[in-house]
Amino acid sequence: MPEESIQHINFDELNRKAVSSPLVSHIYTADPSAHVFNGKIYIYPSHDVNAGDAFDDLGSHFAMEDYHVISMDHPDADAVDNGVALHVNDVPWAEKQMWAPDAQEKDGRYYLFFPAKGYDRIFKIGVAISDTPTGPFIPKPQAIKDSFSIDPAVYKDDDGNYYMYFGGIWGGQLQRWRTGSFNDAEPESPFAHLPAHNEPALCAKVARLTDDLLEFAEPAKDVLIVDEAGNPLLQGDNDRRFFEASWLHKYQGKYYFSYSTGDTHYICYAIGDNPYGPFTYAGRILNPVVGWTSHHSIAEYKSEWYLFYHDSSLSKGVTHLRSIKVAKIEHDENGYIKTLDPYQD
Ligand code: FUB
Which PANTHER family does the record match to this protein (predicted)? Predict the structure, then answer.
């Protein structure tokens, strides 16, 4: 993830006030996946650390080793750190880079889904199980069969089916899976293996999970995002095309797929009629934050909607030292989400 982007907000140049404060400040946290379980909010973030790895365009400096679950009695309550929920050393198949996780509940058990790089330097997605939402989670010894890339987000539909959305380009390696198997051809550059600017954009992936939530029940499909005319967004449409950070929520019977545009730093969304899409591009949820990455989740609590997101304000702009935040968001009378500006004058 390069530092030369033209649109991300530098902390030193920020002369506006953040609309939200970090939920916790004793550790750095990012990529918050929030859920309401048993009336309480549980947030499954990345745990950012300064491991000393060199900055590069593949995000090697995002060298996270473990996960902590953060809980809150309600959106204005103090956030509680419940300690280490899973460490990379306890995952037989994973070597490093415990990136953005998510969790789900089924029949009183809790499932933590997480990406990590294996010893072969390929990102896969694993699952770990606990009897409580805060863990500790016991990992399965192998990654999910046929999983790849990063940023799993698992949505439970009203009919009891669970769907995993995942994928991320550049350091997330999605572009290397275009032919169905991992393309390890040189160069190891985030810009290699991508479609041309005038070709359809790479899509996030979605797969329904098996009843035990431990495997894909079907081959992963493309999450197609189209414009108002029904045409797929193009790879060169950097302000709107998918980059990473999938999320799905349902509002008034419609499926809202939201995601980060990566190098243009927006959280955008698209609306569809079923979990597989296609989804029609609908606008921006969050304007750029301090720091390069933007990653979010959306949760309903007592009929109000909340955006969980992160920025690098607390670390004064260090890209890989981020802090999770929450702000209320609104759907308008037509179902469109009002764009949140994370800073105000
Ligand atoms: O936290 C590491 C990576 O940065 C995540 O997987 C991406 O979504 C981005 O936030």
Answer: ENDO-1,4-BETA-XYLANASE (PTHR43772), PUTATIVE (AFU_ORTHOLOGUE AFUA_2G04480)-RELATED (PTHR43772:SF2)
